[in-house]
Amino acid sequence: MHLLLRDGALLPAPFPLGIGPEAARAIADLYALPALPAGTAHVRAMMNATLDGAVHGADGTSGTLRNPDDSLVFGVLRALADVVLVGAATVRVEDYSHVQGRGDLLEPSRRPGGAPRPALAVWSDSGDLPDALDRSGPLHLISSPASAAEAGRRADLDAEHVIAAATPSAAIEGLAARGMRSIQVEGGPSTLGRLAADGLLDELCFSTTHRTVGGGSPRVLRGAAHDQRWELSSLLLGEHATVSRYRRER
Asked: Which ranges carry the Bacterial bifunctional deaminase-reductase C-terminal domain (predicted)?
């Protein structure tokens, strides 16, 4: 893997990173967040797509699109996040039984909250969650105020792990209030669409797999119409994928 652009500026020549532990540390430094002001959160979206815009393969999951390049970056970014946030539909079809991140980046913790691994937060009004879902990170449930109590019981979660949120902004505030201020959103498209429409995404990080798959896969963002401008901050080029990082214009 090579670094082509950093902090919005093209490098004089591609900088080789490799794919091993040294590359992981370099990518962690590249994506590291500055100190966050008290009471604030940083919301980063990380998604994989193909050259023709598909976010899942023929089996309906993103797993068939994975490759060594985006697996490297996903593992690094999970090691930087206080919490991984996903929608209920995503956890029902994808494997979220283990969201720790790269083991060689866990000590000392690079997370703003200092936890040894990220929490997992699922957006669901039903509380109908897979039995295999990772519950040791810990697991949090985000539900509407009208559904939160029953959804928490169905998910078998204590009340302290249930966040009643009427709006996307309230969901982010609820996570931040519990010390989870570096938030990584991994889908699905409806979850990203809700956050984008409310101007809550600070970064868009995309791994573009060097493949096409056709079919009727949804777009990366699916939700209410909006118009936001983004600045390209960094660009990584690998054999299997191109990984871009965009920051929202202020």
From this structure: 42-234
Provide the 10 A C-beta neighbour count for residue 51: 13
| Sequential DSSP letters for 34-87 | PPPPTT--EEEEEEEEETT--SS-TTSSSGGG--HHHHHHHHHHHTT-SEEEEE
Distance CA 171, CA 41 (A): 11
Residues 6+ apart with CB under 8 A from 12: none
- What is the spatial distance between Cα 55 and Cα 189, in angstroms, rounded to a whole number? 9
pLDDT at 163: 98
Q: In sequence order, what DSSP letters do the residues of 215-236 get, joined into one string?
A: TTPPPS--SS-----EEEEEEE
Asked whether the bond before 12 is cis by omega within 30 degrees of 0, the reply is: no
pTM above 0.85, yes or no: yes
Domains of the chain: 2-30+41-248 (3.40.430.10)
